[in-house]
Amino acid sequence: MYDYHVHSLYSDGEYFEPMLSAAAEAGVSAVGFADHCNLAGDARRRRERARYGRNFDLTYERRREALAALDERTDLTIFDAVEVDYEPGLESEIDDFLTTADFDYALGSVHYVDDQHVFSYDPFEGGEAARRDFVDDYYETIVSLVESELFEIAAHVDIVESHPALSGMTTCEHAEMVADAFEHSRTVPELNAGRFDDDDKPASFHPEGRVFEVLLERGVEFTLGSDAHEPGDFAERIPALRERVERFELEPVCPL
After folding, report:
1. Is residue 237 part of a domain?
2. Fewer CB atoms < 10 Å away: N or C end of the chain?
3. Contacts for 87 with CB less than 8 Å, ≥ 6 apart
4. Are 166 and 124 in contact (CB under 8 A)?
5. pLDDT score recorded for residue 194
6. Phi, psi at residue 92, to the nearest 5°?
7. By C-alpha distance, which of 103, 92, 204 is closest to 153?
8. What's the DSSP call for residue 31?
9. How many domains, in total, are found in the chain?
């Protein structure tokens, strides 16, 4: 059981030792720490970086030193990874950073489109037409992320389904266009359990519903990620991932 999507105190997660202990107790044999990073340089995005703790481009070398020390004190395999906020137009900046930093692998995420975030605790202002337009824009951005070939993994590719105002607006057309992109890219989607134990969220896994069904039909492979931010996250999410892998007879892949 390799978990390629875990966060630490270097973004919005917890200390390394309790995270590793909890992962081992849940039966995980390898952990990929993939802390949040946003590379946009405008003033608005700098404020967002501070708000959501996405300054990992300034601290990744320190975390790398910490991981090297941890590697000597644990039986788990530890991967040095990153989760980067993707937006069209930032490809050059992202490429330069990933080339320089040389992580084991990189996840790309779409957490916002223009000024609207997909976090469920950020309200969505606008009527049904605005919501549908946003979901269209979101999936077009996911396709751009995949086609950029910048990342080994695309994280939680239908995360709009976790937002109460956007849940249920993913269409078959959205699912087909996402699957088309993955079929022609080195980037693979993850099976993400980051919402499994959140009872107030509409979606339990990402992808789920239409997107998951179409990716399965196309034979697209997945990596596995708990998206754990706290030690307690592993206890329910890892068994849930195992059950889903067994139920759908998946063969998870390695991004390395």
Report:
1. yes
2. C
3. 40, 110, 112, 113, 141
4. yes
5. 86
6. -65, -45
7. 103
8. E
9. 1
Q: Evaluate if pTM is beyond 0.85.
A: yes
Positive or negative CA dihedral for 145, 86, 96, 7? Answer: negative
Q: What tens digit of pLDDT does each residue of 140-175 get? A: 999 999 999 999 999 999 999 999 999 999 999 999
Judge whether 18 lies within some domain.
yes
Q: What is d(CA 236, CA 193) in angstroms, rounded to the nearest whole number? A: 9
Q: pLDDT-derived band of residue 203, with 50, 70 and 90 as boundaries?
A: low
Radius of gyration of the chain (CA): 17
> How many whole angstroms separate alpha carbon 96 and alpha carbon 30?
28
- Which two tokens mark 56? 């990992």
Does residue 207 have a cis peptide bond before it, meaning omega lies within 30 degrees of 0? yes
The CATH number of the domain holding residue 236 is 3.20.20.140
Distance of CA 19 to the CA centre of its chain: 18
The CA-atom distances, in angstroms, between 188 and each of 48, 119, 121 are 27, 23, 28
pLDDT tens, residue by residue, 12-47: 999 999 999 999 999 999 999 999 999 987 767 667
For residue 105, the enclosing domain spans 2-247
pLDDT at 196 (0 to 100): 66
Q: CA 197, CA 227: separation in Å to the nearest integer?
A: 11
The 8-class DSSP code of residue 159 comes to G
46 domain-assigned: yes
Q: Which helix (H) or strand (E) holds 188?
A: strand 188-192
Q: Answer whether residue 253 is part of any domain.
A: no
Average confidence (pLDDT) over 93-109: 98
Residues found in the chain: 256
Host H or E run for residue 83? strand 77-85
